[in-house]
Write a structure and sequence with these properties.
74 residues, mainly beta, globular
């Protein structure tokens, strides 16, 4: 799993490993954070920012693919 801040907005990108989800958490309003849950696939591996800090690739072990989250456009 991984938790990283966005470089464009008050957001966190959370890689939730076992259920295969990526959460985009908007913490602008700390009393009621907005959470967008993206169903990817079971058993994700760590992700990390590309050189532009815009794209967050995540290795999805069971899919044999690499989904990429665009943190700038959500």
């Amino acid at each position: 799993a991984s938790i990283v801040p966005s470089h464009f907005a008050p957001d966190w990108v959370l890689n939730i490993k076992e259920p295969g989800q990526v959460w985009l958490v908007d913490y602008y309003d700390q009393n009621t954070p907005g959470i967008q849950m993206l169903e990817i696939e079971g058993f994700l591996h760590d992700g990390g920012w590309d050189s532009t800090k815009c794209y967050f690739p995540v290795a999805a072990h069971t899919m044999n693919k690499m989904p990429i989250i665009n943190a700038k456009e959500k």
